[in-house]
Amino acid sequence: MSWLNSEAFTLFGQRIIWSDMVGNILGLVTLALGWRRSLWTWPVQFLSGLVLFAAFYGHLTGSAGKQAVVMAVALYGWWQWQRNEDRTEDGHIVPRFATWRERAAMLAAAAAGTVAVALLFKAYPSLSWDPWPDAYIFVGTIVAMYAQAKGMVEFWFAWLLVDLVGVPLNFANGYAFSGFVYVIYGALVLWGMRDWWLRSRRGPQPALEGAPA
């Protein structure tokens, strides 16, 4: 799999390697399928993680480990969507808003997870190129995937918060190609957020107790 780490082309003076390009393209496809509420979003997410895992394994252990976690969460998402009984006529899941308790739990997990992962990265510098933003993006990605697995509209907000750090960070570090890809991610996130938001409002609303049918 050494070809994954070879140069595909040069853009904006930046060497684009095959694993970066393939991983980013699969990431865009994953978001597009998530927008369409297609079950195939999870296999594509798993494939993206597998490509990057193969590219990193053996010389970037920390990055490979992060992709292993992403693949595990993708399998969890596939399992959740398979067993979700709340579906539309076309077989797609029905999005919903998280409860306040779920939101609080995800925010707490994201904050605690970011601190814990950043401290781990600082303790083992070989695991990360920049501990705090790397931990924020990694944990934010896992939280977003979890919310998506649960069919929550908030998963788009989590992706947006990841993008708000990912876009300027990539440009600041000279990764123009990845920065532009994150801009496209941002556009997909906004469109997907609008679609899921509207669809969550169209679902059947529970009747009030004692109200006439």
In short, what is this structure?
The chain is built from seven helices and two strands. With 213 residues, it is mainly alpha-helical. The N and C termini lie far apart (62 Å).
What does this structure look like?
This protein has 213 residues and is mainly α. It contains seven helices and two strands, in the order ββααααααα. The chain has helices at residues 18-35, 41-56, 61-83, 100-123, 131-149, 154-172, 176-202, and strands at 7-11, 14-17. It has a two-stranded antiparallel sheet with strand order 1-2. A hairpin with a 2-residue loop joins β1 (7-11) and β2 (14-17). α1 (18-35) packs antiparallel against α2 and α3 (61-83) packs parallel to α5 (131-149). The longest helix is centred in the last third of the chain and has 27 residues, at 176-202. It starts with 6 loop residues before the first strand and ends in an 11-residue tail after the last helix. Mean pLDDT is 80; it is low at 204-213.
Secondary-structure element string:
EEHHHHHHH
The value of Rg in angstroms is: 18 Å
CA-based shape: globular
Biggest pleated sheet: 2 strands, antiparallel
Transmembrane segments: 16-35, 42-60, 104-124, 136-162, 174-193
Keywords: Cell membrane, Membrane, Transmembrane, Transmembrane helix, Transport
Pfam families: NMN_transporter (PF04973)
Protein name: Nicotinamide mononucleotide transporter
